[in-house]
Amino acid sequence: MRRVHTMKLLPLVLALSFSPAGVASEADHREFEATLHAPYTALASAQEGRTFALAFSYPFVQEAHDIVWRLELLDPAQRVIERWQGLDRLSGKPVEVKVRWRGRAADPALRDGLYQVRMVAVAREAGASGAQRLSEAETDGLLEADGSGHRVEQAWDIAVGTPDSVPMPAFAPLATGTNGGKAAVARPDTGAAPGTVSPASAPATASLPYTVYYANLHSQTNHSDGGGALASCTGSQSPQAGAFGPADAFAYAKNKGLDILMASEHNHMYDGSAGTDTSASAATAKALYQSGLTAAANFNAANPNFLAVYGLEWGVISNGGHLNILNSPELLEWEYNASNQLLGDTYTAKNDYAALYTLMKTRGWVGQFNHPDSTGQFLVNGVPLGYTADGDQAMVLCEVMNTSAFSTNTTETETGRSTFESACNKALEAGFHVAFSTNQDNHCANWGAAYTNRTGVLIPTGTPLTNASFIAALQARRVFATMDKTSQLVLTANGRVMGERFTNSGPLTLTANFANTSGKTVSSVALFEGVPGRNGTVTQLSTSASTTITPEIGTYFYYAKITQSDGKILWSAPVWVTQSATAGDTVAPTVSASESGTSGTITLSASASDNVGVSRVEFYVDNVLKGSDASAPYAMTLDSTTLANGSHVLGAKAYDAAGNVGSAPSVNFSISNGTGGTGGTQLLLNPGFESGAVSWSGGSGIINNATTTPARSGSWKAKLAGTGATRTDNLYQQVAIPAGAASATLSFWLQVQSAETTTSTAYDTLKVQVRNSGGTILATPATYSNLNKASSYTQRSVDLSAYKGQTVQVFFTGSEDASLQTTFLVDDVALTVP
C-alpha cells in the first residue's frame, strides 16, 4: 500500500558564502539547483530505514521562490510504495529538507532488492502569501505544468537487504593508463610532498584491443573562476583571483592518479571580470588563453603518461547553457572593450548555439554538454537541446553526472552530486550522437579528488596518449561514464564496439561487458533503446547483460546502464544501428567446440569459419555464457572450481558482422576437482576465490586480491572486518549435502591479524555458522577472535555431518567493535564428503 506524506518542513539553512571575494558571474551561475542524496545502504541497526536529503539553492536569484517538490520510493517492480511532498520558501540562502524513511520498521514485509528514490522539484516565484500545504493533486499539477526551465529531476537506486547479483558475461579488464609517477611539484592544497598512485594493469588477454584512460573533463583554474585554496574555497572565485592555475591543476590531477584533466575555463572571464570590463586589454586576454595552451603543452612534454587539456567552457547558465570546447586554439568571445576591441580571438554571439555549432564543425572542434537541463538550455529556434546537423558533428559528449562544483573534498567521498540522464536522453532522441561522460566541475583546488567518478576513454592499445588520439577517441564516441574509477563498461552490438554506427539485418545481440578490479559485482543491468530524431522517450529494453533482438526496420540507439553492488553506476556510450530489410549476407558461420582438462584451469576451444568473416565466438557451459573471443584461434580458460563435479555441456556460438549466428553441436565433458582439505569430494564452488566473488554471496569487496593482505594460495582470498570501526561482514555459499554421505567436513585456512593487545578478551570475532536456505541460524560450530591472531594461516575444520540431506548456507560472519582493527583472512575453503 502506498503511503503519502504531505510535509511542510522547517528547512535547514546551509551556511554558504557568496561574499564579493568569492563571487563570479551572476549570470553564469543563476540556475535553480536541486540535489537528492539517498544512501545506498542502511546502517545495520536501522532496519533498512534511512534519511534522504533534498538540497535546494538558487545562486544569485533576486526574488524569493517557492520550491514545490515530490519524493517517491519505488519498489523493484517500479511501483510507488511511499511518497512525500512539500512546499518550501527559498529566499537567498540554500535550504535542505530531511525526509526519514522507516524501512522495515514500518513495513516488515519489504523484500530484498533494488528500490529507487525519485525526486522532482520546481522553483516558482513566491506568491504574496506564505508557503501553504498542498494536496497530492495540487503538487502534481504544479510539477507537471512547469515549463519555465526551473524543473529538476533526480533518481538514485538504494539497496534493501541483499539484492541478488546479476550474472555477467566473462570480460577481461582492459589495460589502463600508465600514469604511475609522481607530480613534479608539491600539491597545491596542502603543500605536502606528492604521493604515488598505483601502476597500470597489464594488457588484458582475450579482450578488446583498447586501453582505458580515466579523465575529468570539466574543471576550472584561476584563468577563470576556479583554483580556490581549499581552506577558504566556498564557491566560485572572482575571475582570475584564485590561488592556483592550470599547471598546478595538471600536477595535482596526475598525483591523484588521473590520466587526463581538462581545464575548461569560462570563455567570458578572460577580461578578469564577472561582467564586461570595458577597460580590459584585448591583447592581455588573448595572451592569457595562449598561456593556458602553453602550460598544457609543456606539462605534456614533461609527463608523457598524462594528458593535460586546456580549453573553454562556453556560454552562461541563465537562458543559455554551458558546453565545453575541448580542442580550440582560439579564445571565443562576445565582449568588447571601450575601444571596440573584441576581448578574444574570434567573435561568437552569446547564446547562439546554432552558429557556434557551425563554427565548431568548420574548425574541427569537439564539445561536451555540461550539466544539461532538459528545458530552457541550448536553444535552437526556441527548442531546448535543439538539433542541427553541424551540432551533431561537433558535440560528442553529454555529462550524465557530476559532483558538487564547490566541493573541497580530497578523499573521493563527496556526497553532493547530480544526474542529468533525462537531458542526455533528450539530446539522443533529438538526434545528437553523444556519449555519456561524468566529471567533477572542480572550482576549488581538488581537481579529480572530490569523488571516484571518471570518464573512461578507450584508445587503441599501442597508440600513445596524445591530444590527437584523445580527440579521435571522442569523435568515435569510445567513452563510458563511471562512478567507480576501478570499473569498466563496454557495450558491444554483434561484436561492434559502443560508439559505432552501422547497418544491420537480422538478429542484433547487445552485450554489456563489465569489469571491476576491486571486487565489486553487479546488482542491476538495464539496456535502453531510443530513436534518434524522434524527440520521444527512451525506453528500457532489457534487464539482462546480453540480449538478442531483431529490431523493426529503422534507426535506433542502444546503451547500457549498470548499478554495482555498492550503488555506483556506469553508463556505456550508445551504439547507433540502422536495421535494414536487405538480406545481404545471410550465411551463418559454422562452428565446432571442444574442451580439455577435468580440474584446475580448463580450456574451452572452438573452430569457426564464415563466407565473409567471423566477428566473435561465445562459449557456454550448461547454457550459461562464460566468455567470448574475437580472434582466431578461438579459446578461453576457465577455473574448474567454478563448476560442480560431474557432467557438463559445452556450447559455442559464432557470429559474423551481419549478425548471423551459427551454433556448435553440444559437447559433453566432466569435471573432477579432486579432494578438498580433508579428502573426499569437494561440494563448494570457487573454494579458493580465484574467480573473485563467483558462487559466493555477501558484502562487496570482501573477496579481493589486494596484496596488502595476501592470500594463502593464488591471488584471491576473503577479508572480513579489519577497519578499526564498528562493522559486520558476511560471506556465504549455499550447498546441498548429500543424504547418503558418510560424513561432511568443512575446512578452511584462517589468518587473524589484530591490533588488539589483550590476551584475555575477545573484542572482535569471526563466527562459522550453518544457516538454512532462508538464512536462519541452525548452529555456530566455531568462533575465532582477536585472541587467535597469528602471523600465518592455520587450517581449521568443523564437522557438518549433522546436516546431511539438507541444503544449508556455509556462513562466515566477522564482527568488529569501534576501535583497534582485527582482520580475518579466509582462504581455500572446502566442504568435503567421502
UniProtKB/TrEMBL annotation:
Superkingdom is Bacteria
Q: Which residues does UniProt assign to the signal peptide?
A: 1-23
A Pfam family hit: Big_7
Keywords from UniProt, A to Z, are: Signal
Name under which the protein is recorded = CehA/McbA family metallohydrolase
Organism equals Massilia jejuensis
